[in-house]
Amino acid sequence: MGYFDYTIRHTVGKGGRGTVYLAERIRRRPDSSPIDMNAPLSPPPLCAIKRMAHRPNNHTSLTRSPCANGQLWLNEARMLKILHHPHIIRLHESFQTPRFYYLVTEYAEGVPLS
């Protein structure tokens, strides 16, 4: 899966390190392809996508280098992958493009934390 497997519905929130979008997964499996029973479960249709730039776009950010943002993305993906708790969102996948890092998680409805 990757960025083009999702349709962005709207922006959920914006912070110092990235933007979170509500997205809908697009099913792209051709009818003729076999179903792999050992494949990981696909994310539900609605999910949250957190997008972090390779290079932070503000000078007040604590993460000034692209390596720092990449390390934050990798650390967050690793933590979400191993943590399983009812009050922690689950990670469905993570990937990157030439300009951005992405985390695809379950979408938790509720009130903003701000």
TrEMBL record:
Top-level division of the source organism's lineage: Eukaryota
- Its transmembrane ranges are none
Answer yes or no on keyword Lipid metabolism. Answer: no
Enzyme kind, highest EC tier: transferase
| PANTHER family on file | SERINE/THREONINE-PROTEIN KINASE NEK, SERINE_THREONINE-PROTEIN KINASE NEK2
Identify the Gene3D superfamilies for this entry.
Answer: Phosphorylase Kinase, domain 1
Q: What is its EC number?
A: 2.7.11.1
- Coiled coil (UniProt feature): none
The Swiss-Prot or TrEMBL record annotates one GO molecular function as: ATP binding
- List, alphabetically, the InterPro entries matched: Kinase-like_dom_sf, NEK_Ser/Thr_kinase, Prot_kinase_dom
Please state every residue range assigned to the domain named Protein kinase: 6-114
Task: State the name under which the record lists this protein.
Answer: non-specific serine/threonine protein kinase
- What keywords does the record list, in alphabetical order? ATP-binding, Kinase, Nucleotide-binding, Transferase
